[in-house]
Amino acid sequence: MMQWETQLAMIGIITVLAVISPGPDFAVTTKNSLMHGRQSGLATAAGIAAGVSVHIVYTLLGLGYVLAEALWLLEAMKYCGAAYLIWLGVCSFRTQVQNAETTTQQPCDQGASHWRAFRTGFVCNALNPKTALFFIALFTQVVDPATPAIVQICLGLFIAAAHLIWFAIVALLLTHARFKAKFDRCKTWIERGVGVCLIGLGGKLALSS
Questions:
Q1: What pLDDT does residue 188 have?
Q2: 117 near 40, Cβ under 8 Å?
Q3: With contact defined as beta carbons under 8 Å apart, do 81 and 24 qualify?
Q4: Pairwise pLDDT comparison (159 vs 206), residue with the higher score
Q5: What is the distance between the terminal CA atoms of the chain, rounded to a whole angstrom?
Q6: Domains of the chain by residue range
Q7: Are 122 and 43 a contacting pair, CB within 8 Å?
Q8: Tell me, what's the pLDDT at 205?
Q9: CB-based contacts of 98: which residues, under 8 Å, 6+ apart?
Q10: Dist. CA 187–CA 124, nearest whole Å
């Protein structure tokens, strides 16, 4: 029992440290929260958590071991993820025109906007090779192979919940009334800065070995 409790504590600590470390997920949550509001930020957080399900599924199916050996699959995921981040960064420089257009949109369009935010978070996490490597390392090095499938599913859900809670907190803090007025005054520069960060993250990911 003590060994199992130690294993759970280790998984919890590793998960929290991995989730709160700045990366693509943090960048897209910041972008959508500051540029499009709290609901978009929360939708992005939900999408990121849902994206974790992709990694959970292939890990439970044993494909994590395949990914660990088939480096070309991780390479393909890396370049797809890098291209997506760069595309998001480029789009950040186009939102001024889009924002001018959205002022004439009807409230019913917000549902589509929230869906786009959710989709952005989902794809960003699903194509994140660092998340893939995290799951591979966790379920091949830390989790006992004899661990029942239901326990592994619960661990996966815990990791997804950790992503949801953390990025929801980020979205809530960034859109808090105390900070929102300050962000609004330099919204354009923040938007461009986040775009540069996304492009930089995509370039760094593409060039990483």
A1: 67
A2: yes
A3: yes
A4: 159
A5: 40
A6: 37-207
A7: no
A8: 65
A9: none
A10: 23
